[in-house]
# Entry
Amino acid sequence: MGDPVDALTVIFTESYYWITVVMMFLIHAGFCTYEVGASRRKNVLHTLMKNTMLIPLVTVTFFFFGWYVYFSFPNVPFASGGFTDAPWAEPWNEAMGTNMQDRINGVFWAAFLLFSWTTASIVSGAVIERIKTSAFLIFAVLIGSFTWILDAAWGWHPGGWMVQILGYHDAYASGVVHAIAGGSALAILCVLGPRIGKFGPNGEVNDIKPHNPWLVTIGLFLIFTGFWGFYAACNVPIIDIGGEAGTFFSATNIYLMPTTLSAIVFNFLMSFSGGLLAAYVVSRGDPFWTYSGGLGGIIAASAGNDLYHPLQALFIGAAGVVVMIYVHRWVERRFKIDDAVGAVAVHGYAGFFGVVVCGFVLWGYPAASPMFGSYEAREASIALFETPEGLPQINPVGQILGAIIMFWVLGFLPCYVLARILQYFKMLRVPREVELAGLDTHQLGDAYPYHAHQETAFEKIERTYAKE
Amino acid sequence: MASTGLDSFSNPADIGAMYPGVGAETAMLGILVALWLIWHCFQIRQEEVEYREAVKLYREVGMERAMHHATGTIATADEVQIKT
# Structure
């Protein structure tokens, strides 16, 4: 790095991603806090450790193979191109360590790793209070180090086949992170079943209160804060996008298409506000759903928040949250799905909605950088829609197909199969007696030994199940 | 002393990998992959043993008492006895 401008650009980029990683740690602190708050007193420590231990496991497996998957799997499965060479992402490569000739690989790896933690952690909240830790940690590795990063190779990598052929656009991961996590959580919940007593004999839904609503509140604020880092990490901070027209430095989205930090600040805050406003009204001021609505609003608008007008972001965030809450209520009653923290709703339904809506609102924009226009699938002219310059075009058909791939194909399907296998070997759910007594009770003990306990309405219901 | 192959930082432009054991990455990786899988095996076994003991205890003392125990209100004497 002898040239001062090159050195500044590289070291600025290195520092930029480093800061996003630090900020994204708050997302995980928030998920831990939120989940612990949402759980009952008898499950607090188990819930904490289940979520915490995904951190080291996803980290080491993302080092082993996750990072390689992102760069090596962008082609159409079994159809074109095969695996792409990505020596810098091989876990035995010298670039995967302290190296004076590569300052970006580590920070970029870490930013993607934090996305991995987030994806796995979203699932963690849905399944609290009855899943075995061992089962969840296997799911965490599958989701955090394989399925999500495979969908990123297909739909986030600028040369990914979904981007180049379908014109798939998902700038801040409505589908790539959130819809896949929601689909994964739904699959596990279908096999795992509800917590004992959640649904009464006549199908009534019993409310299971969080043991600490203030931890839930703080957790969601930490997640909101960490999302600033998440959004920034989805951008490339500085790159020459001028091409033949001459040098023009800009920030870009993950597809190397132009956007600005200002744009995403506008849209982040407006979609957040739209979600809060809508959720407050639809839920009649319920704090849990209002806070979740803030997150749902961001997620519903994230696919296109690089290009939306702030008022569009607000409206899409609000609409996504209305859809999210009504679909959640219908699924809960119709299919008896016990989503303990609303993760399938906030991430799955809102994410799916966001990907689809983006296809209509941004229909016509180029989906990927001209620098990847030579991708072989593009040369075969099999893209669904093209811009006049022959680039893949954002379109509703591609987005609808993309949402289905994210939620159902890469989210629901692999986790459903794995859940069935774990269930067959009795590795999925804790024994009934352990669930009733509390997952902490035998080994870890009461998390609040100095606090008196008053039996809740739900615990009275639960006791009737203990007598069966 | 580990052989790093690097004993001077005087010409940074020529320095690539800086960690000790350059060339041994594949062996290190193989060991760590094995440890990762072994970790899962240990964790699964520990959890199964814990729940097996818990179910045995709860059936002995009755679920009503076990559920009270979750709130820290019941002594653990018989639990200790079973563990030993």
